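Input record, target 12 of the design panel.
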């Protein structure tokens, strides 16, 4: 039976989520997935604060990177990061809830470009992330099972 692009994205996300130990350990929630897009959320805990009493930038990066992973694997083709960069716009604090929303900007052959916007619960911009992916051998999930 042929799957729609949305069904494909949902099946890939379900398979990934079950194995995504890092994102789960950080309390990330997958809010939405679709062809070439994803949205995730993470509440900033006390143990995520750095020496400046703000959220560690690496954890903001991890939220954006996880969102990027769900977006670039949404076509059910195994995809990995080639390069990623982030611009931090404002700090996040303990108690903030960050939402990362990512969208495919282009997919040509095996190479994709994805932009992720990270905002706090006040819809204030916290960070902008761009990830470039390449598809590798295999599929995220076997849809014939």
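The sequence produced for target 12 reads:
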């Amino acid at each position: 039976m042929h799957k729609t692009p949305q069904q494909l994205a949902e099946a890939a996300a379900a398979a990934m989520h079950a194995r995504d130990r890092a994102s789960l350990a950080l309390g990330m929630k997958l809010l939405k997935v679709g062809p070439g897009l994803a949205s995730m959320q993470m509440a900033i805990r006390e143990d995520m604060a750095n020496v400046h009493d703000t959220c560690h930038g690496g954890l903001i990066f991890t939220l954006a990177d996880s969102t990027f992973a769900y977006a670039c694997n949404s076509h059910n083709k195994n995809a990995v990061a080639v390069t990623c960069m982030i611009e931090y716009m404002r700090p996040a604090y303990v108690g903030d809830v960050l939402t990362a929303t990512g969208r495919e900007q282009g997919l040509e052959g095996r190479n994709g470009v994805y932009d992720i916007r990270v905002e706090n619960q006040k819809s204030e911009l916290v960070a902008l992330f761009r990830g470039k992916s390449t598809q590798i051998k295999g599929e995220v999930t076997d849809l014939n099972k």
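The helical segments are 5-19, 21-25, 57-72.
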